[in-house]
Amino acid sequence: MAATGAENCPCCSDDGPLLSSRIRPASNLILLLLADILVHCVSCSRDVTADTYEVHKCTPSLTPDEEREAVVLLKKAISTSTEKGIIHLATGGTPMTFIQVTKARNPTTSVSSRTVKMRCSEMQTMQSIVSGGEPSALIQNKVLALNDEERSRKQASLPP
User: Fold this and answer.
1) Each residue of 37-83: pLDDT tens digit?
2) Which helix (H) or strand (E) holds 117?
3) Which of 43, 105, 122, 136 has most Cβ atoms within 10 angstroms of its Cβ?
4) In 3-state terms, what secondary structure has residue 7?
5) What span, in angstroms and rounded, lies between the C-alpha atoms of 115 and 112?
6) What are the distances in angstroms from CA 140 to CA 37, 119, 126, 128, 146?
């Protein structure tokens, strides 16, 4: 009878070393390749990377019925709010503030001056709430960021 490969294998034979002592850990390259693979989570219907699949937290989206109920509640809260278009909610932790922002259907350059004033008022209210009462500091940072962006654009357009 001819000898098979399993009989001559030091790992498979009864007196051979444990198989786990012969297995090497995966290289960093293999782990990096696995990190780019997307896995579809059946609980929350989101695509997550394979390396974070085990630890990601599912945040299921609202059902259409829940979304309709939320819209009704938000409209009611906005209409009964003491501040126009602002809702303050206590959460048991950090309170949440919701601001009604109207979606523009037309560009600001083609609307009436009344509409421009309303849009500016909405933006001022939002900036005041987001900045903690100091909208001028927020605007200064935005202007500096725009200047940096414009400077980068000009440098990119110059020949080398």
Assistant:
1) 777 777 777 777 766 666 667 766 778 888 899 889 888 888 888 88
2) helix 113-130
3) 122
4) helix
5) 5
6) 42, 20, 15, 13, 10
